[in-house]
Amino acid sequence: METINVQKRDFNVKAKKMRRLGMVPGDVFGNSLPESISIQMEETVARKLIRLKREGSKLMMNIDGKTVPVQIKEKSLNSVNSEILHISFQALTADEKVNSLIHIIITNDDKIAGILERIHLEIPYASLPEDMIDTITIDVDGMKAGTALTVGEIPELKSDKIELQIDPDSIVLRVSERKNYTPTAVEG
């Protein structure tokens, strides 16, 4: 599991100035901590996290020499310039279930004859940290028009170690027929 290095936040520097200096503010919270910890990390580390990980991704965090297992809980970005404003992490405890998201990744969507509708690509669930799932890849190559895949049909989600927080009959994706549009002549 990947480890990132962060420091406890220096409150003598305001968040705006901190970002100009190449640092991103954040926080770590959880029942295993006596109180929430305000942190700061290098912008390069934060950018890599945003690019490679998702909300619900699990990693190790080194806070001033103490290593803590965490998941990314929330990230705030400036929608105008993509500046990372803040990242929140939840500390994980081995014997405590945690709420998270599984991200559905679809491959070979260019190889189906129909139209692919992506409906639920984030599946909310709860599990112990050791049973957490970051992503599930679904290969849609060969799926025919009329096919619908539900949450309950995904093999990884049939585990008794995962407590789904969505109806198993919810549709993840559906393949519809392509409608051929033929313009009709306007009589005049």
TrEMBL record:
Query: Where are the membrane-spanning stretches?
Result: none
What positions does the domain Large ribosomal subunit protein bL25 L25 occupy? Answer: 4-89
**Matches recorded under CDD domains:** Ribosomal_L25_TL5_CTC
List the InterPro entries hit by this protein, alphabetically.
Rbsml_bL25/Gln-tRNA_synth_N, Ribosomal_bL25/Gln-tRNA_synth, Ribosomal_bL25_b-dom, Ribosomal_bL25_C, Ribosomal_L25_dom, Ribosomal_uL5_bac-type
Q: Reply yes or no: does the keyword Ribonucleoprotein apply.
A: yes
Question: Pfam families annotated for this entry?
Answer: Ribosomal_L25p, Ribosomal_TL5_C
Q: Which UniProt keywords apply?
A: Ribonucleoprotein, Ribosomal protein, RNA-binding, rRNA-binding
Where in the numbering of this chain does the Large ribosomal subunit protein bL25 beta domain appear? Answer: 104-177
Highest taxon of source:
Bacteria
Does the record carry rRNA-binding as a key word?
A: yes
Q: Which PANTHER family match?
A: RIBOSOMAL PROTEIN L25/GLN-TRNA SYNTHETASE, ANTI-CODON-BINDING DOMAIN-CONTAINING PROTEIN (PTHR33284), RIBOSOMAL PROTEIN L25_GLN-TRNA SYNTHETASE, ANTI-CODON-BINDING DOMAIN-CONTAINING PROTEIN (PTHR33284:SF1)
Q: What is this protein called?
A: 50S ribosomal protein L25
